[in-house]
Amino acid sequence: MEKLRMGVIGTSDHYELRVATPLKSSLLVEPYGIASRNLEKAKAYAQKWDFSRAYGSYEELLADPNIDFVYTPLPNYLHLELIKKAADAGKPVICEKPLGLNAREAVEAAEYCAKKGVPVMEAFMYRFHPQWRRAAEIVKCGEIGTVVSTNGLFSYNLKDGSNIRNIAAAGGGAILDIGCYTVSSARLLMGGEPERVVATLIRDPVFKTDILVSALLDFGGGRVSSFTIGTQAYPYQRVTALGTGGALSVKVPFNSYADTPGELTVNSGLGGRVVETEIVDQYLLEFDNFAEAIINKTEVPTPISDAIANMAVLDALFASAVSGSWEPVRKY
């Protein structure tokens, strides 16, 4: 099968660190073109990561008929604009999370791509890891009963003011960068959407970005998820789910290692066990699954409706941090 030629918009560190090497093993995706607003920078990046073409503008890449789909790992505030430009060029697009700065942008992106007949997917790589597929199966089959609560912890320590994650105007901050993961995983394990949320939030006095956030998500019927995220704290991550008949915990839920098995701890009436899943690279799975959907003309594996629902919760978290009260999650 001939590989799909991918165009990457932006010479990002994220692509270098997490995506470039896994895609060398892909049977479906060929990293074909790289675009930067600086042609010399694009050429150097292309040489380093074996791209066939380098472009001195994003528009030039999008105009290339050899590009089958595009990937954008650029900052959050550029996502909607670039998704629209890709759709105008008729290019399917996989966009880094979050899909936009708020749910309104996510809806606008979805409607625009639908009008143009172009597939779009939010790049939540963790959803493709077999440890999460197995966790979802355990919940679905009822092994731990009805999930009544989940808890998420996700943090890192980054105090560099030049880093895009610490620039408020570019969509930096904890909620958009990592809160999207703790909300997404809670929605997955709880099997639904929260009705309302309440959150506390601390901002950096210089950066003005949210650096420490704790929240409760009320799913109704007494079922509540909680999480704490931080961008100036000890690096740590863990997700647990408590059910009426057991519990499970995902050891490294989001930044799982590509050279070690995934690991779940499961406790139920029969006892406790550690479940190991196969060694995979979740980024390779993410891009291959997206490419397969394009080739087969099927729905993308993570539907755009999921991105919109996730953003609606993030919006409510921001609103609660301002009001100091429970805020409803808007339905779209």
Automatic annotation (TrEMBL):
Taxonomically, which superkingdom? Bacteria
Q: Which residues form the GFO/IDH/MocA-like oxidoreductase domain?
A: 132-248
The alphabetized UniProt keywords are: Oxidoreductase
Q: Matching InterPro entries, A to Z?
A: Gfo/Idh/MocA-like_OxRdtase_N, Gfo/Idh/MocA_domain, GFO_IDH_MocA-like_dom, NAD(P)-bd_dom_sf
Cite the Gfo/Idh/MocA-like oxidoreductase N-terminal domain residue spans from the record: 5-123
A Pfam family per the record: GFO_IDH_MocA_C3
Gene3D superfamilies for the chain = Dihydrodipicolinate Reductase, domain 2, NAD(P)-binding Rossmann-like Domain
Q: Which SUPFAM superfamilies match?
A: Glyceraldehyde-3-phosphate dehydrogenase-like, C-terminal domain, NAD(P)-binding Rossmann-fold domains
GO MF term set: nucleotide binding; oxidoreductase activity
Record-stated family: Belongs to the Gfo/Idh/MocA family.
- The name on file for this protein is Oxidoreductase
- Recorded source organism is Treponema primitia (strain ATCC BAA-887 / DSM 12427 / ZAS-2)
The uppermost taxa in this organism's lineage are: Bacteria, Pseudomonadati, Spirochaetota, Spirochaetia, Spirochaetales
